UniProtKB/TrEMBL annotation:
Stated name of the protein: Anti-sigma factor RsbA family regulatory protein
The keyword Transcription regulation is assigned to this record: no
Gene3D superfamilies, per database record: Histidine kinase-like ATPase, C-terminal domain
Domain MEDS residue range list: 7-150
Lineage of the organism: Bacteria, Bacillati, Actinomycetota, Actinomycetes, Streptosporangiales
Key words, A-Z: Kinase, Serine/threonine-protein kinase, Transferase
Length: 321
């Protein structure tokens, strides 16, 4: 792939500001024969189509809310598109407007992490990514965009971001913050032997007393099996599985007293066909769960899985801390 990968942020105050940067970016891709995507709101779709005129036929339009629905699945799908385009001697070019509204604090952090990891995940694809950020977003979201994108675009001009951080540096900074302790009323299971049948039964019994959909329960069971297997193989006893509820979420945590070491963020990047084993299968875990939080150090390793649930039944304790 002759083109160099690019990942730029396009801050804007008004729709005209966004159009000033987006239209040249899209038109360049159309002229070059790139696979061109516009992932924005429906209102912006209309503006882009109007301004592009007949050229709009060379752009694929997608809605932000659906495109940016799940961090790991977004990465898997988009990296796959970029690699396919590169194999076809084309370039994937994406104008994206990440969906930040109505996300909780942990979701925001996870998507900011994805923006950083994008610089490693797409590095060899030659893709061109332009991410639009409204200045009306929370200040922390806008500030983080300058740390996760190497360059800023203003109109057709591009300038480096002095605050940009390399993806693994940014990732390590997020992981430096310790996780809050589990609630006192969590259900704890000490794991002495690798009896995965009873471990799955234990998780199933808890989950079926919540509104967690059956498909999500099956995803959770696969994820828990993978994490417990990793702890048994790569960690050190004692190993403990904990379950509890938080508002809108079922939380499952596995802890051990080993220090996991892995250079590339424990499954944050879609693995190559020959590279999955080096990530302990944690990429699959990230695909299965809404949020995966991992902390590891000399005192041990914690893997915390979160799945969204429609509501919390009154009969079960809820951690509101």
């Amino acid at each position: 792939m002759s083109q160099a990968f690019s990942h730029r942020v396009l801050p804007y105050d008004r729709a005209d500001d966004l159009l000033d940067g987006a239209l040249p970016f899209l038109r360049e891709g159309i002229e070059n024969g790139d696979r061109v995507l516009a992932v924005t709101t429906l209102a912006m779709h209309m503006l882009l189509r109007d301004k592009l005129g007949a050229d709009a036929a060379g752009v694929e339009f997608f809605e932000s809310d659906k495109w940016y629905a799940h961090p790991a699945r977004y990465l898997a799908d988009t990296v796959g598109m970029a690699e396919t385009a590169a194999w076809q001697k084309r370039r994937l070019r994406v104008l994206g407007e990440p969906a930040w509204a109505r996300r909780g604090e942990l979701e925001l952090l996870e998507w900011q992490r994805v923006e950083a990891i994008t610089n490693a995940a797409f590095a060899e694809t030659g893709a061109a990514l332009l991410c639009a950020y409204s200045r009306s977003l929370p200040a922390g979201v806008v500030a983080a965009s300058r740390q996760t994108h190497p360059e800023t675009m203003r109109g057709e001009a591009t300038q480096p971001n002095p605050g940009y951080q390399e993806p693994w540096t940014y990732n390590a900074r997020l992981d430096a913050k310790p996780l809050p302790p589990p609630p006192d009323d969590s259900l704890d299971l000490d794991i002495q032997v690798a009896d995965l049948y009873w471990i799955r039964a234990y998780v199933t019994d808890f989950a079926r007393r919540t509104p967690l959909p059956e498909d999500d329960l099956q995803r959770l069971l696969v994820a828990v099996t993978e994490v417990v297997t990793n702890a048994l193989r790569h960690g050190r006893p004692p190993i403990t599985l904990r379950l509890w509820l938080e508002p809108g979420e079922l939380v499952c945590e596995v802890t051990d007293h080993g220090h996991w070491t892995e250079r590339t963020g424990f499954g944050l990047i879609p693995p190559k066909p020959a590279g999955g084993a080096s990530r302990f299968g944690l990429w699959a875990v990230r695909l299965l769960c809404s949020i995966v939080q991992i902390r590891t150090g000399r005192e041990g390793t914690v893997v915390r899985l979160r799945l969204q649930i429609p509501a919390v039944p009154a009969s079960l304790p809820v951690n509101t801390a």
